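User: Let's play a game. I give you a shape written as tokens, and you guess the letters that built it. Ready? Here's round one.
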């Protein structure tokens, strides 16, 4: 797919709901909304809404129902697992798909299922992780953090040194597939190979990676396979409250799920329980069937479009925005990639002399541009990128009345286009030249 920076409108724009919605500005005028906050959540695909509406008349409670609609709904729900497995090339003979609310719940579930009470077990997380891939591990394992370099990129050398340091006690290396702050894409297969050589397992937090890049859990080299993968529908054009945990069935056969109830047990007395086999023993209560329908519809659309085509287009958007940002005096960009280096469409920056919250408010009030600011639930990573010392952080712990450090984040979706970036850059140029007039 040969695309040029001269292209003003995305070829995918008509596939997404709400791209031409008019919103009010502070002046009272209306403008077309520009959403550069896709790393938080994406709007739904048209195909997702159509599938939801089409399926609604057949919706019924799944499993054990004898009615036709219940049988049909159960079939749709169970077939969705195969669709998800195929999308990321998981092994259907080994792996299972557990449906949850989001990536956060998926990682929490995995943390409980891997915990065996061994206080010596170590989880290797990294300095670039979202809180959801850090906090769930802390109360069950020893957690150690793989270092990042001066640009914020993961150090494979430090990963290996920590695998050696912990001498076979590493239970899991848990790493983001792509950073929600800098957009860096981690070499997950190299990390997997290194991890497996030291007899540990790997989990990839795919919340940011899966919607933008092709993911292969089972490449030709078995050492490079991914043991566990998690991701969310709401970041891939299916915002209906569904997430996914993929991993070996064996992991979920032992012990008891942290969340049990209806649907998880095969036989129950007051004295003993026979649990359902995975994945059903992990999915207590009535599941979010509509969310699963939405997720599979989104996967079908993404597959039809081609993940490589999406990646190529979003990379052109990112390169264009990066080149424009770096040409504006007074803008500091906090991510650095070489030409051809893999990344997703996320760019963190600040405007000199203007607090990150103020900059975001100006963009929204003046031009209807939505961005996100702050630390994006990755506070240790932001502290490192901004060179904030532990002593400075102690001040924030003691005083809640002062503004917290952070950055402005642009994050692109497949429906964004170059003309939207031009509008943003024109406003940023004006702000950088006359910051006091906007404060």
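Assistant: Ready! My guess for every position:
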């Amino acid at each position: 797919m040969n695309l040029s920076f001269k292209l003003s409108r995305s070829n995918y724009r008509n596939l997404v709901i709400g791209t031409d919605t008019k919103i009010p500005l502070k002046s009272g005028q209306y403008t077309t909304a520009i959403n550069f906050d896709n790393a938080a959540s994406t709007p739904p695909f048209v195909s997702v809404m159509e599938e939801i509406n089409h399926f609604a008349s057949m919706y019924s409670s799944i499993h054990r129902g004898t009615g036709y609609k219940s049988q049909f709904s159960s079939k749709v729900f169970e077939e969705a697992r195969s669709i998800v497995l195929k999308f990321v090339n998981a092994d259907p003979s080994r792996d299972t798909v557990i449906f949850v609310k989001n990536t956060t719940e998926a990682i929490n579930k995995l943390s409980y299922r891997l915990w065996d009470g061994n206080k010596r077990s170590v989880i290797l997380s990294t300095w670039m992780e979202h809180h959801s891939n850090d906090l769930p591990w802390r109360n069950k394992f020893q957690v150690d953090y793989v270092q990042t370099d001066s640009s914020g990129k993961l150090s494979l050398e430090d990963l290996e040194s920590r695998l050696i340091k912990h001498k076979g006690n590493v239970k899991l290396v848990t790493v983001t597939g792509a950073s929600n702050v800098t957009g860096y894409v981690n070499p997950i297969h190299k990390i997997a190979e290194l991890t497996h050589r030291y007899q540990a397992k790997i989990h990839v937090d795919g919340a940011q990676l899966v919607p933008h890049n092709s993911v292969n859990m089972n490449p030709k080299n078995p050492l490079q396979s991914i043991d566990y993968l998690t991701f969310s529908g709401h970041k891939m054009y299916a915002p209906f409250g569904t997430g996914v945990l993929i991993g070996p069935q064996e992991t979920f056969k032992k012990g008891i799920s942290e969340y049990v109830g209806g649907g998880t047990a095969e036989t129950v007395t007051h004295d003993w329980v026979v649990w359902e086999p995975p994945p059903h023993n992990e999915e207590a209560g009535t599941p979010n069937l509509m969310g699963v329908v939405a997720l599979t519809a989104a996967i079908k659309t993404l597959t039809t479009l081609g993940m490589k085509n999406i990646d190529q287009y979003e990379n052109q958007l990112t390169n264009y925005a990066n080149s424009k940002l770096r040409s504006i005096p007074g803008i500091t960009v906090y991510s650095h990639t070489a030409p051809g280096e893999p990344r997703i469409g996320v760019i963190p920056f600040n405007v000199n002399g203007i607090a990150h919250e103020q900059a975001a408010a100006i963009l929204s009030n003046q031009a209807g541009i939505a961005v996100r600011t702050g630390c994006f639930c990755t506070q240790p990573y932001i502290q490192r990128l901004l060179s904030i010392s532990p002593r400075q952080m102690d001040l924030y712990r003691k005083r809640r009345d002062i503004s917290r450090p952070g950055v402005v984040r642009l994050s692109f979706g497949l429906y964004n286009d170059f003309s939207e970036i031009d509008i943003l850059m024109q406003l940023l140029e004006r702000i950088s030249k006359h910051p006091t007039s906007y404060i």
